[in-house]
């Protein structure tokens, strides 16, 4: 037993001695690779425990360089995402993201063995000694510190790779979401129609992914509600909810009655009261809804910070509420069933009463269906669920609007059968009615054949068009009534302006026409902006931002002509054409007559305005289509070549027409003589001028001839008087003084001959054959000179025969400005 213990002790002493002898060599072998680490590849690292491993083929330096390159590629993909416009672009970027993710995985797989080898070395060294320091333990400690530092570097590289992998996963998910969004918003997408069972399947069986997303969103809503319904918060929440409801129901009526009282008792007894009452009804509804929303926000979200999803939901909820409140308010303002005398449009009482429930019903249905669609968008539900929600929205809206139209038509038919007078409406109102009916039919057809997105687009555009139309109608009526009341010479405001500025009634009418026209033009511009940049759920603040952006010069950034751009271009062209004609009619019938312009000046300015307006309208249409001007360079080049050959005359006539309209050497209504032809200018067009000749025929003269040739303008002089001169020859034995007195007497007796300048007789010629006298008289207009000359000849011949005076030769007549008899009849 003692020998056995002695032997064991001897073996222990030998083991300690062997370790003491080998420790310097072992320390050197382990420290040398650590000192050479930056330049050593993973394939050259040797393990102290002789662990067999496959040498990696990459160094940490190369791995870091590759990770930086991959990060640059990832940033490039993100930048390209903002400019992607179609599904093909998104698919290409998604494939690039997947390939980059695979490269990160490959690089990570090459780095992982290095960390395992370093960890194996640390495991061989074991834990750090707790006490005692020897030269061997110091070397082991230094080696352990070096290996830990290298391990930290490897972990940092792996973390970079993991972060890139995570970011690429998020980017792939975003690509999938964008692709789903493009697919949902694609108008050409066709699915099952509303009469197909597949369309209604999501109501009975919800996809699992949608259930998870809706469940997560529902949890956020429940958490918000739970925070305000805890003990100690319920009373305040209940009070705020009741206050919001009271503001919506009672506050609206209170505000409406207050505004109605102000309109009836403080505004002048003109049509301004009706338009102001209509506006007050819409404003009271919108104001009450806005205040109620603020109180509701305090009731539900005062104790939590809204998540992005809830914040987005509240924004959509606000837009829906305000838009639907505006629909309801405009319906009450225009129908006005309680006070028919306040009604602005020409609607019969039975028709207005029949339509009374439809605005509020439509607003309520749009609010519910719009909220459902907003939740689907925020949660990012599947395509089938999204199309189901859109289909239900479109179907409910179309049926409601269609039912309103049918009921109104039925009431009108009953009125016609009873012998009551039909409603008076304009052509524009008839076109709007027909367009609405066509939109409803198109939406129903799209729902039946499976184009749900098309039906939803038509439905929302129809609702938005009706909102803009009704709003602009009320505001236009209000603008005209305000101008008529403020600048009326019979009301207090007009009288004060007359006394303050020293104006007369004519000047007040001119100011009224100008201000009313400017206000109407601005409202039309706002309507165009609303139709082109807005949509269902657009708030007044959004419209203001759109208008400011347009005035500030922002343009569409898209380069392609897309369906939405085509719709905008068609709407913009139609509205611009109607606006151009309306402004032209206003200039011709109201503004320019109020300024006292002559017909010629009026026609010239209106023609110039129309030509410029058409050019601007075409340019606006191209801009709405998304056409870049640099892409039209080839058209300009082609036009340049064409102008050099075939279009030269057209361009010359066009420029000449502009010169005629600006310099006005001749104008509409002038009588001119050109190329031995004489007549009145009836119209100056872009290419040619229409001249009505004395025989009632029309001569078309190119504008360039009126600029380049000699033109005699009979009516251009300062005086508009006509001159008729008669040249008569008498025998030599005739008493010239007697003849002079006779001729002057005839001229003085004619009612059309002016006293100033007075008629005169000149002794123009004395020959062996006889004496020649020339008598001249002036009339008010050259257009009556021929008739006056004829009357004078009859009277002169009668007086000459009575006095026994004869003519030697046939008389010669020279009538200035009006040579023939036919002019007397024009």
From TrEMBL:
Keyword annotations: Cell membrane, Coiled coil, Membrane, Transmembrane, Transmembrane helix
Membrane topology: Multi-pass membrane protein
Domain Mechanosensitive ion channel transmembrane helices 2/3: 607-648
Domain DUF3772: 159-219
GO molecular function terms attached to this record: mechanosensitive monoatomic ion channel activity
Domain Mechanosensitive ion channel MscS: residue ranges: 650-715
Cellular-component GO terms for this entry: plasma membrane
Segments crossing the lipid bilayer: 235-255, 276-300, 320-337, 358-375, 387-406, 427-451, 457-475, 513-536, 565-583, 604-625
Official protein name in the record: Uncharacterized protein
Source organism of the structure: Paraburkholderia caffeinitolerans
